[in-house]
Specification:
The chain is of the alpha/beta class. Helix content is 31%, strand content 19%. It contains 13 helices and 13 strands. One of its GO terms (biological process) is L-amino acid transport.
Length: 376
C-alpha cells in the first residue's frame, strides 16, 4: 500500500517534527500472539457509498487514488487551548492505521473531530472525497458547497475561532465560527455516522440500563436505515435482514455477547462492555471504525482478544483508525501509523518503520527487547 499525494506518507520514515518533547508513556509489554502485517483487503463499493452522500455535500473528485479518510491541516481548539495544530493524515481503504502519542498529544481530539463532535477551526476532513467538516475547496456535487475546483491540503478561508469546549454529546460546530459565518461547520454526528464512520470512544459509552440486545440494536439505528424504513415493506424487510446479519456477525466475533443477550449492559464486566461498545459500532455496518483506546484497563488476555477482533474486523473489509497507548500491540496489527506530539504529526510511516525507529522504541515501546518482538 503506497498512498500517494500526501507529503506525510513518504517512505522511509519521515521525520515531520522534532520529538524532543515526547516522554515515555506506556511500556506495557506486548500481549497476545504476534501477527504479520498482511495486505489490506479491498474496500467496499464506492457507488454504494455515493448513494448515501447527503445532497449538498462537497465532493472532491480531483484527488487520484483517493484516500478513505483525509484530514488536511486541521486545527482544533477548546476555547483558549489549541489541541490540534495543523494535523494532516490519511487512511486508505482497507488499512489499519495506528495513532500514537503521549497523554494530551491530541489523539482523542483527532477522532472527535473526524466523527463530527468537534469542528476544525482550520483545515478540513474528507471521507472518500466528500467533505465532512472544515473549509477547503473541491468539486461540488450538490451545489451548495464552497468548492471551486481545486483540492490539496491547504484550503482554509479565514476561520480562526472555534466554539470552545464542546462536550461529548453531539456536534457543536454549526453556526459557531468566530467570524460569524455559517460556512462549512461540518456534518453533524448522525450524518457522519450514516456515511459509514463509527466511533468507539474511550470509556465504553454503553447504555447501562438497556440489555445487551437493546444496546446493540441502538447501533443499527442510523439515518440510512431510517430512510429504508420509510421506503416500503420490502425495503423494511431488507433493513431487518440487514440488522440480523449484522447481529450474527457481532455474535460471531463476540460469542460472550450472545450469551449475555438479556443482561443489563451496566452489569457486564469491563472487557464485556468494551466488546459491546465495539459490537454496537459494527451494527451500523461502518466502512471506517475509529477506536479510542480499546485495550484500556483490560486484562492481558482480553487485550489480546480485542486486538484479534480488530484484525478480524479489518479482514472483513472495515478500515480502522486506532488510538492506542499500547503501541507495541497497535503496531503489530497496523499497516501504518502516525505519532502525534503536542497537537502535531511528529512521525509517520509504515508500522514496521515506526516499530524500528529508535525514538518510537524509546518513547513508546519500552526496552529494546520489547520492541524487537514487534519488529519483524
Ligand atoms: N474538553 C476539553 N476542554 C479543554 N481542553 C481539553 C479538553 N479535552 C482535551 N483538552 C486538551 O486538549 C489536548 C489534547 O487532548 P486529547 O484528549 O486529545 O489528548 P490525547 O492524546 O487523547 O491524550 P490521552 O492519551 O491522555 O487520552 C490536551 O492538552 C487536553 O488537555
Amino acid at each position: 500500500m503506497t498512498p500517494e499525494g500526501n507529503p506525510l506518507d513518504g517512505s522511509p520514515l519521515e521525520n515531520i517534527a522534532p520529538l524532543e518533547n515526547i516522554s515515555p508513556v506506556d511500556s506495557t509489554p506486548p500481549t497476545g500472539s504476534a501477527s504479520q502485517v498482511g495486505s489490506a483487503p479491498q474496500a467496499g463499493s464506492v457507488s454504494a457509498f455515493r448513494s448515501t452522500i447527503p445532497a449538498g455535500t462537497l465532493v472532491d473528485l480531483t484527488v487520484p487514488e483517493r484516500p478513505l479518510l483525509d484530514v488536511r491541516d486541521a486545527e482544533v481548539a477548546y476555547g483558549a487551548v489549541t489541541a490540534l495544530r495543523g494535523i494532516s493524515l490519511r487512511v486508505d481503504p482497507g488499512e489499519v492505521v495506528a495513532l500514537l502519542g503521549a497523554n494530551g498529544a491530541g489523539k482523542t481530539t483527532t477522532l472527535r473531530m473526524i466523527s463530527g463532535l468537534l469542528p476544525p477551526a482550520r483545515g478540513s476532513v474528507w471521507f472518500d472525497g466528500a467533505r465532512l467538516a472544515g473549509t477547503g475547496s473541491g468539486t461540488g456535487l450538490g451545489g451548495t458547497g464552497t468548492g471551486g475546483g481545486t483540492s490539496g491540503h491547504s484550503g482554509t478561508s479565514g476561520h480562526s475561532g472555534t466554539s470552545g469546549n464542546c462536550g461529548t454529546s453531539g456536534h457543536c460546530g454549526a453556526g459557531a465560527w468566530s467570524d460569524g459565518t455559517r460556512d462549512s461547520p461540518g456534518l453533524p454526528v448522525h450524518r457522519v455516522a450514516a456515511l459509514g464512520i463509527s466511533h468507539v470512544p474511550e470509556g465504553r459509552r454503553i447504555f447501562p440500563a438497556m440489555t445487551v440486545a437493546e444496546d446493540l440494536a441502538m447501533g443499527a439505528y442510523t439515518d440510512r436505515r431510517r430512510a429504508w424504513s420509510r421506503a416500503g415493506r420490502e425495503a423494511r424487510r431488507e433493513a431487518r435482514r440487514d440488522v440480523r446479519r449484522g447481529l450474527d456477525r457481532v455474535h460471531a466475533l463476540f460469542p460472550r455477547l450472545a450469551e449475555r443477550d438479556r443482561q443489563p449492559a451496566g452489569t457486564l464486566s469491563g472487557g464485556e462492555q468494551q466488546m459491546l461498545a465495539i459490537g454496537r459500532a459494527l451494527m451500523a455496518r461502518p466502512r471506517l471504525v475509529l477506536l479510542d483506546e480499546p485495550s484500556l484497563g483490560l486484562a492481558p488476555k482480553l487485550v489480546a482478544t480485542i486486538f484479534e477482533v480488530i484484525e478480524e474486523i479489518n479482514a472483513d473489509g472495515v478500515t480502522v483508525l486506532l488510538v492506542e497507548q499500547n503501541a507495541a500491540a497497535a503496531l503489530r496489527i497496523a499497516h501504518r501509523g502516525y505519532v502525534l506530539d503536542t497537537g502535531q504529526v511528529a512521525l509517520a510511516g509504515s508500522a514496521d518503520e515506526l516499530a524500528r525507529d529508535p525514538r518510537v522504541r524509546d518513547a513508546y515501546l519500552g526496552s529494546p527487547s520489547d520492541s524487537d518482538a514487534v519488529a519483524p
